[in-house]
Amino acid sequence: MSGKSKKGLDRRDLLIASIATVGAAATLATHAGSVQAQDAAASSADAASGGSPGTVYTGEMIQGKKVVSALDADDLEAGQKHHLYFQGVQMPTGQYWYVSVTVAKGAKPGKRVVMTSGVHGDEMSSMHTVQTVMNQLDPMQMSGTVMAVTDVSRPAIEGMQRRWPNFGRGSDLIDMNREWPGNENGATAPSRHAGLLFNRLLRPNADTAIDFHTGTSGFDVTAFNIGGMDVPEIKAMLELYPVGQIFDSHVYPGVLHNAFVDAGIPAFCPEIGAARVLDLEMISLFVEGTMNVLKHHGIIAGPMGRTGKDVSVFIGNSAFPILATEGGIVEHLVKLNDKVEAGQKVAIQRNSFGEVVAEYTSGVSGEVTGQRSDAMSEPANPLVFILFHKPPPEGVEAYPE
Q1: Tens digits of per-residue pLDDT, 137-156?
Q2: CB contact set of 115 (below 8 Å; sequence gap of 6+)
Q3: Of 60, 134, 208, 400, whose CA is between 20 and 30 Å from 289?
């Protein structure tokens, strides 16, 4: 139940509402009378109604590439690849964070697929996967459009860190994959950035979407997909990847692929191993699966590659976390993708004297889907996640990608 007063907004809500109102008013006052502001206002209204805002060029060029503040891929010439920059949120200096946009516009009409990566700044394999897929596409042989945005959270990527460093109300780190679909007049830069991207770039150009990720720094994961298999369109795509595991779950609000789903656009999330590295062997599996998805939607032609059936994919609907109870060095007794039984010992932990201070067992039968890769751990850090079939015990959260 909401903690708000029955009399109306509490003080925090009132402050946030006031900030949004003042910000919107200041924007209108600063840009009143300019053609660009009129275009932006129309774009925002169209986006709010779910319509296409049309393409808005800012008139700027960055490294020879045009800058847009809104994009409708229908405006682009067919049979070509287009490289653009999208103007995202402003920095404190008044400069903008720009994101890279590649559009492969097919010679013939067809479905529109949006691929994103870099929502977390330490996830290199996901970015490389999207780049590899785009490099394999020939627009003259395509029906439909594939759009890629590889560097969604630019400030986080610059530091190769998971979270966006935000300075609006003192130094803070914000997980951008809890901000979607965002708010163009939100109280933080990541919220505003998410709102701009979702309303003016991503949603208007998507019939389906794939948001690529990896594990976080210090925590390694298998090759697996996350998505709700109760949605037939999503289930069909999840099963087209030759990866060992599928996490059949809608996880939680605020993640990008769920924002697409809430907007009526089938979407899911591939997870491609460890952060901060390029796992070329694992990347190849997700490139193959993504090309299968494009064939499935009739965007490109050719025979299907390997799918989940070819690798006996394991499907679970819950992820059981095993958390550290002590500080010390962690020694894993199982590997990623290993099958484990309930009660099986999966890790031990030693203190500075080398004495065993904790032993950890699985509470369920399933497969190892994630392991802490940092050797040291303090209490409450996740050590292992086990993918399994049954609902988790009460109070246990799903895998925090």
Answers
A1: 999 999 999 999 999 999 99
A2: 130, 133, 134, 146, 147, 148, 149, 209, 210, 211, 212, 290
A3: 400
Over the chain, what HEC string results?
CCCCCCCCCCHHHHHHHHHHHHHHHHHHHHHCCCHHHHHHHHHHHHHHCCCCCCCEEEEEEECCEEEEEECCHHHCCCCEEEEEEEEEEECCCCCEEEEEEEEEECCEEEEEEEEECCCCCCCHHHHHHHHHHHHCCCHHHCEEEEEEECCCCHHHHHCCCCCEEECECECEEECHHHCCCCCCCCCCHHHHHHHHHHHHHHHHHCCEEEECECCCCCEEECEEEEECCCCHHHHHHHCCCCCCEEEECCCCCCCHHHHHHHCCCCEEEEEECCCCCCCHHHHHHHHHHHHHHHHHCCCCCCCCCCCHHHHCCEEECEEEEEECCCCEEEEECCCCCCEECCCCEEEEEECCCCCEEEEEECCCCEEEEEEECCCEECCCCEEEEEEECCCCCCCCCCCCC
| Token pair recorded at residue 78 | 């067919």
Tens digits of per-residue pLDDT, 328-374? 999 999 999 999 999 999 999 999 999 999 999 999 999 999 999 99
Q: Are 324 and 378 in contact, with CB atoms under 8 Å apart?
A: yes
CB 133 within 8 A of CB 104: no
Per the CB < 8 A criterion, the answer to whether 215 and 370 are in contact is yes
Q: How far apart are CA 351 and CA 328, in angstroms?
A: 5
- Radius of gyration of the chain measured on its C-alpha atoms: 22
Residue 366 tokens, joined: 């399933």
**Tokens encoding 12:** 């925090």
CA nearest to 155, candidates 169, 170, 174? 174
Judge contact between 244 and 238, C-beta under 8 A: no
74, burial (CB in 10 Å: exposed 0-12, middle 13-18, buried 19+): middle
0.85 exceeded by the pTM? yes
Task: Give the other-Cβ count within 10 Å of 66's Cβ.
Answer: 16
CA distance readout (Å), 315 to 34, 361, 388? 54, 21, 8
